[in-house]
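DM from R.C. (forwarded with permission)

"hey, sorry to bug you on a friday — could you get me a structure for this? deadline for the figure draft is monday and I only need the backbone to look sensible"
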Amino acid sequence: MVATLTEKKTTGVCKVRKARQINRVVILNLNYFVIFLVKVLFFCMAQQNDSWFSCKRPAEVVRLRRKRARRSTAAESPGPSGSSPASGPSLATPSLHSQSTSRGKRRNPFLTSDYTVSRPKKVLVEDVDCENVGTFIKRMSSEKTSGDSRSGPPGDSSLEKSLSEEKPLLETEEQHTDNLLLKNPLAITPSSIAPVTPVSCAEYPADWSLKTRVIFTSPVSLSWTEQPKAQEEALGLSNSCRAKFPMLPHNLQEPRSWSDARSAFQQSLVYWQHPCLPWLSLFPRINAEKNFSGKNLPWTQDEAVHESLVKEWSVSLSSLYSLLKMGLCPYFYVCSYQFTVLFKAAGLGGSDCITALISPTTRGLREALKAEGVEFSLPLLKERRRINEQHKSIQKKDEEMENENKDFLQMDEDYQNWDEEDDGCSQGEDDSLSWLKEIGIQDKLRKPECINLQLQKEAPTLSLDHKPESAVCVEGSHSFNLINFLINWKSVVAAAGSQTGLPPTLLAPTAFRGATMNVLKGRSVNVKNLVDCTYQNISSLELTGPILPSSLHAITTLLQNAQKGNFSAALYTHTPTAVMNIETYRTRRSRAVGDLTHCGLPPASINHLQQPSTLGKTTLTHITMNNYSYTWKIG
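My reply, with the result:
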């Protein structure tokens, strides 16, 4: 019995083993069969001409058809020497596939036909040479024209003639283009394109816009700027009132131990303001309703408080203008709820007279200035008209430019001809109503009004409102009329809203009647920045408040010595004041300098602000000093 049981077990185990072996063989054969089917399938798909391997986009198909048509026309037409193009070198621009096959090189599969050889060079407008701006622009324009001539159309006869005469030059050019075409556009190194090296200057251009915040960063610690001693703060405030500016050494080895450096930093943070209400932030005023909502405004409830507030403001504004006229105050700002005015003394910005810039303006404000006899100009609008006239002269020579510049010139043409449209309104109306007199029903019908023509007349002037082109410039003796206009114009004070009854904010770098001394708020923080896979200690200083141009220059001059010529600054501009750097008519005509020795600014800041501004409608966004040389970015 035992023997039979053992025999049955061994036979069962043998059967299981045989079944497993059979299953393995079957599975292996199935795998081979599947692999064979896949290979056959791929072979069949590769043999097809219209397979998905040779799919092309519709744009590429159209482009190939155009190339075939050009080749056929080129083959039919004889060359310059009377022979067919096939006998000489091909002058038409070859396709990517033809170049690669003719030279025995494989075509780059990642290169598309949209990529062109002569790509324009990108120039970062972050650095402006203070002396060689014209040379830099000429060099860039010459490079651009030379690049355009190299990348001209294939059908240009002059280009074909020059290429056919100079065969070695053609061969080198083809080799250069072939190398560029066979490369991946994303893998082209910057060394293949000639970079534009940033130009460094010893001084950055003057920026007349107000800054709301500035963040300084430096590898050298900026902790010496915080928590001054009582004596150092008192000395800085006293020197600011007395206009004393101590001389500091060129290299401060340890700024924290220098009491004069810390007091000079406190002196550069001082500015004067009227009115000054501790529970309200009076800068900025445009689009700042959140700063006034829910606050206590006693002048809205008591008329006597409102009258005294406006009267004191008028006295302060008159005092500021008197100081400006005598050369004892270099400049000041009038910040209203709807516009900002910058008054500059004679000699600043390259002008020989007092200059006032108002931005932004509306049609109602400009009409009110005309009614009060304040003569003004629109510098940006004149500049745009001058550019348009140049475009018109180019259109007379080249009629093909007419369609491209039509939209650009339409607005200014309407603005120049709105008087003629107004005069023609009544005449056209009488002509259109002449048929009513013949019928005899003229008195029974109401005359249609010229509403549409009136709206068309006012459209160009209304389109300037709240835009940079609406900036108004008042020069010379008319600035006194502007002061009287601001004092007597009721709309200078808001009649509704959260700023009701609050006069504009006056900001100046020097003291004036009714002014309050304020100091910019600063905060120093040490952070770590990732540079080249390593963390480096970076010290930062953040300043908030109405940062005046003279304050910014004084702070950067002090940091230049204290930070060993290495720091950077990020500037945040108050948007309505971004157009304060425009060039006026008197600035272009004269470069006179007034007597500003007693205006209350250090000599370095006076020399800096006397230079004509080259920024135009743009402002400084970043300033970087490296090895005592400035580079900057504009925006």
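R.C.: lifesaver. The first strand starts at residue 211 and ends at 218.
me: no worries. The chain has four domains: 59-192, 211-268+520-581+616-634, 274-378+472-516, 383-462.
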